[in-house]
Amino acid sequence: MSTPSATPGTPAPAASMAGPEAAGAAGQASAAGPASAPGGADGGRFGALGPVGLVLAGGLSVQFGAALAVSLMPRAGALGVVTLRLVVAAVVLLLICRPRLRGHSRADWGTVVVFGIAMAGMNGLFYQAVDRIPLGPAVTLEVLGPLALSVFASRRAVNLVWAALALAGVFLLSGGGFDSLDPAGAAFALGAGVMWAAYIVFSARTGRRFPQADGLALAMAVGAVLFLPLGIAESGAGLLDPVTLALGAGVALLSSVLPYTLELLALRRLPAPTFAILMSLEPAIAAAAGFLILDQALTAPQSAAIALVIAASMGAVRTQVGRGRTKKRADLR
């Protein structure tokens, strides 16, 4: 899938605007089949409330896991934290999924390897960013990657409005020149956004080539193998310290395994556009996690910047959904 809307049946808005693990969940869910309508047999008495709660719980898990990772960095370093997260998450997912290694084509393996590279790059750049700038601004800059992918894929004039809102948010966040943020940290966050966009594209491709979550498990293993030498070079035997290892396992479970599971369950009962809009709230969740765990207070301009980027994300999702409905009506005529 070259763009989020390229393949019928794929939850494009969810994949394009969701968080990293959520994007993986969207890709794997699209491979498993279309989501059932909310409020049906799966919805129970609470209709869509249950799936919404799962999505929000997944978002909270991701961002509070990131906050825990920041607190772990003085012990293991940014590269060490990424290594622990990827290795533990890979081991857990491989044990749960037990993916089949035979019967896949070269194209299948090429897709999953690129997916793993994108995953490793996204995580590595993001943790370099949060080692230098607050969590809320880092996630806000990172989400520009999926936002740009969504805007370019839709190709509608109204997306200029959402792009303008996002750029206004970036301008406020930078203080007119990133004087209030470490320039290297901001650059790492923007780089993570680029890798996030690549992750989204190859997540969906992997989901179509591998059953269930097998592709995600294999890609996580690829990312772990790629990062292991970097983590050892930075932290050495410190990665095996029991406290560091336990905290790293907590980061992996909070940032990868738990949110992926919750969001995959939610995608079976929640419309993809609703899922995507909920995931657009991630910068706000990240800011709350940074404040509560890391004592990272935001200035008024930074808070306004986050609100603008969230509004741009939600607007881009709604535009994509409207375009899809218009196209569907035209096809029925």
Architecture overview:
This protein is an all-alpha fold. It contains 13 helices and no strands. It has helices spanning 12-17, 20-32, 49-97, 106-130, 135-142, 144-154, 159-174, 183-209, 214-235, 242-267, 272-279, 282-294, 300-332. Helix 4 (106-130) packs antiparallel against helix 8. It is globular.
- N-to-C SSE string, H for helix and E for strand: HHHHHHHHHHHHH
- Strand % is under 5%
Task: Let me know the largest β-sheet.
Answer: none
DSSP strand count? 0
Q: Detail the poorly predicted runs.
A: 1-22, 30-48
End-to-end separation in angstroms reads 26 Å
Helix tally equals: 13
Radius of gyration (Å) = 19 Å
Computed structural class: mainly alpha
Assign a percent range to the helix content: over 70%
Rough outline: globular
Round the mean pLDDT to the nearest integer and report it: 77
Helices and strands, with pairings:
Layout: H1 12-17, H2 20-32, H3 49-97, H4 106-130, H5 135-142, H6 144-154, H7 159-174, H8 183-209, H9 214-235, H10 242-267, H11 272-279, H12 282-294, H13 300-332
Keyword list:
77% helix, 13 helices, 333 residues, mainly alpha, disordered N terminus
Question: What would you say about this model in short?
Answer:
The protein has 333 residues and is an all-alpha fold. The chain is 77% helix and 0% strand.
